[in-house]
Amino acid sequence: MSTAPDPQGPPRPSHSPTATATATATAERPDVARALVSSPLPLPTTTRLALLVLVAGAGASFATWWWLVLGRDNWPRAQLACLPGTDAAPDEILARFTGCVNDVRLAQSAVVLCGPLALLALAVLCRAAGRRLSLWRWRAVPDRSSALARRLAAVVPEGGGPRPVLWVRGRGVGIRARASGTVRRPRIVADSYVLSLSDRSVDAIFRHELAHLRLRDVGRVRLATAAGWLLLLGVTLPMVVALARDPGLLGAGLLVRMAIVLVVVLLTLCAVLRVREHDADLAAAADPGAPPDATAAHIGSALAPRRTERLVRSLGLATHPTPAARLAVLADPARSWGLSSLECLTTGLAAGLVFTDLTLLVAALMPDHTQLAYMIGGLLTGWVVAGVVTVAWWRAVAVGHRDASGRRAAPAGAALGLGVLLGSQLAGRAAGDWVRDTGTADGLATALSLTQVPRVQALALGVALVVGGALFALWSTSLARALGATVDGPRSAPACAAAVGLSGLLLAVPLGSWFLFARLTAARAAPGIRWAVIDTPWWVAGVLTAVAGALVPAAAARGARLAGTRGARQPRPLVLWAAATVLVTAGTGWAAFGSEPNRAPATHVSGGSEASVTPGVSATPGTAATPTDSVNSPDPTASPASGSGDRTVPLDQLPLLPPKAERTDALRSDTALVCRALSLGGTAVWTEPRRRADMAQLLGGLDDPVLRAASAVLRRAPSGPVDSHAPVASVLRCDLYFRYGR
Question: What does the alpha-carbon distance between residue 198 and residue 642 come to, in Å, rounded to a whole number?
Answer without folding.
Answer: 83
